[in-house]
Design a protein that fits this description.
1 helix; disordered N terminus; 10% helix; mainly beta; 136 residues; Porin
Length: 136
């Protein structure tokens, strides 16, 4: 019986998913024009390896790099019990990097996106999505 419980405990730990895929719906805001709109952002995180990427809608991507796609890999991912923070390079021109940051609350599911050089921000509520199960 004791061996069975140990086997069950080890099997349960190994079956824990290290991937976290989120769909975040919220509001994009332009600071200067004070204009707002609804958009969706997708996050894919590998919690075991502290890596991931983000899929941004066109409204958050500068015009000069839209032809390169909407997927950006995270450079720095920090995971704690309460939040996940990450950063990625949105654009790079010469020596200047436009670095974007995200902060995801693991308690509330709230995502905040900021970029130092752009006047657009995003705040939204995230929910898990199952990428392994097909909906159709």
């Amino acid at each position: 019986m004791f061996k069975y419980l140990i086997f069950l405990a080890l099997f349960s730990l190994n079956s824990f998913s290290e991937e976290l895929n989120l769909l975040c719906k919220g509001t994009i805001g332009w600071v200067i024009e004070q204009d707002f709109g609804e958009i969706t952002v997708t996050l894919n995180l590998d919690l075991k390896n502290n890596t991931g990427d983000i899929l941004l809608p066109p409204q958050l991507i500068p015009f000069q790099v839209r032809n390169k796609g909407n997927r950006f890999d995270f450079e720095n991912v920090n995971i704690s019990d309460e939040e996940i923070t990450a950063s990625f390079v949105l654009t790079k021109t010469g020596l200047i990097k436009s670095i974007s940051n995200i902060r995801l609350s693991r308690v509330t599911g709230r995502l905040d996106y900021t970029n130092k050089y752009r006047q657009k921000g995003f705040s939204g509520d995230c929910s898990k999505i199952e990428t392994k199960k097909k909906k159709f």
